[in-house]
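Tokens in:
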């Protein structure tokens, strides 16, 4: 960022001067007018070499010796089945053009032409490329569907970190065909999402992977029995303060976290220089396999004050867990005495992209709807939970939240 700023600072006066000279010494022309009246046909590119990669190829060449070349154009079909074509251009400053988006690992033809400043194309040079297996097909081989709480969980591995989409299809018993139910696009190394809202009867799901050029993998079909999920009964929750828990402040109470109200008073620790993480412990009144929870921050302080930004949930299935001083950070699954880290979470920033201190009205409305987080499917059953806030939105050493709603399998 600093390097870019210095670059602009140095070149901006020179750029202004060049623009001034250009417009003071030439008349205005239409944008679509060719930049040259020279209609000489350029020679073809030569010394063509191909380096293949997954789903594409780098093509290097020597430019024609004629000096009026503006760019080199590559035209090619990326999918023989659909006839979909692409066109890529590379300026005369480069000797390489990238062709990508091919649907299969096979031989394709690429037509190269040099185009002059007068918009005159050279003869075509046909090059054969042999792209390796496209990333979307490799990712599709890792599709995994499994039963999840109230639905199905979909996972794919993308170690190449290229943009792909995992498309989940669903067919109800009365429907003649599958339809898109949920889509997840990412360039992360792991795509992991769940579709919920189903009963526990067998459900017909399918998943395929697509890429940014519209290529689709083969579809994987699977019948899944969603796991039972229900909202945990908040009337059974109870405070279970441990010695390392942070002191409550301002007359608020931990039990406000499950009183059913997202306004008024909630859980609020003392506004002092307290050690991190800011911690609170409570019992669920039942042993349950937890699936997800919704946490509500304090309205009026959206993306600020003591609202949790980075936090963890620790759990214990021990009927009477002993205290443990929790670390600011631990990997999911870390065991500390009677407690296990059941998930690390980051409350996302304003959806508009605005800074937290300048959140829009829509950002604040989104914040106040509460934020849903999921427990890892591998998380063990729990009777007790600990909320451990390692960073608030203001960076202060106190925290507050208004309500928590928890879902899981209580059977």
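Residues out:
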């Amino acid at each position: 960022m600093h390097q870019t700023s210095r670059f602009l600072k140095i070149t901006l006066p020179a750029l202004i001067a060049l623009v001034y000279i250009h417009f003071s010494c030439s008349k205005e022309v239409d944008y679509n007018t060719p930049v040259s009246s020279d209609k000489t046909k350029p020679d073809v590119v030569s010394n063509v070499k191909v380096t293949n990669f997954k789903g594409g190829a780098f093509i290097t060449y020597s430019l024609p010796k004629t000096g009026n070349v503006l760019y080199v154009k590559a035209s090619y079909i990326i999918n023989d089945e659909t006839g979909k074509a692409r066109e890529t251009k590379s300026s005369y400053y480069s000797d390489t053009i990238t062709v990508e988006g091919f649907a299969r690992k096979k031989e394709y033809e690429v037509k190269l032409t040099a185009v002059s400043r007068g918009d005159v194309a050279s003869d075509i040079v046909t090059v054969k490329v042999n792209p390796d297996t496209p990333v979307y097909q490799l990712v599709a081989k890792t599709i995994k569907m499994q039963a999840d709480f109230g639905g199905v969980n979909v996972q794919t591995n993308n170690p190449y970190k290229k943009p792909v989409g995992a498309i989940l299809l669903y067919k109800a018993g009365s429907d003649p065909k599958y339809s898109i139910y949920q889509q997840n696009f990412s360039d992360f190394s792991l795509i992991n999402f769940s579709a919920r809202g189903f009963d526990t009867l067998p459900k017909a799901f399918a998943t395929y992977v697509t890429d940014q050029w519209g290529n689709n993998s083969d579809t994987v079909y699977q019948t899944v029995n969603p796991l039972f999920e229900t909202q945990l009964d908040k009337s059974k929750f109870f405070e279970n303060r441990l010695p390392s828990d942070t002191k409550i402040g301002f007359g608020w109470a931990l039990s406000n976290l499950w009183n059913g109200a997202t306004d008024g008073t909630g859980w609020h620790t003392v506004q002092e220089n307290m050690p991190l993480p800011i911690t609170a412990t409570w019992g669920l009144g039942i042993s349950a396999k937890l699936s997800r929870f919704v946490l509500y921050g304090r309205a009026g302080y959206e993306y600020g004050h003591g609202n949790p930004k980075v936090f963890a949930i620790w759990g214990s299935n021990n009927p009477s867990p002993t205290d443990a001083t929790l670390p600011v950070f631990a990997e999911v699954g870390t065991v500390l005495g009677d407690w296990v880290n059941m998930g690390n979470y980051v409350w996302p920033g304003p959806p508009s992209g605005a800074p937290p201190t300048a959140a829009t009205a829509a950002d604040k409305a989104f914040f106040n709807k509460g934020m849903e987080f999921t427990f890892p499917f591998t998380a063990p059953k729990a009777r007790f939970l600990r909320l451990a806030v390692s960073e608030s939105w203001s960076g202060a050493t106190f925290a507050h939240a208004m309500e928590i709603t928890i879902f899981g399998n209580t059977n």
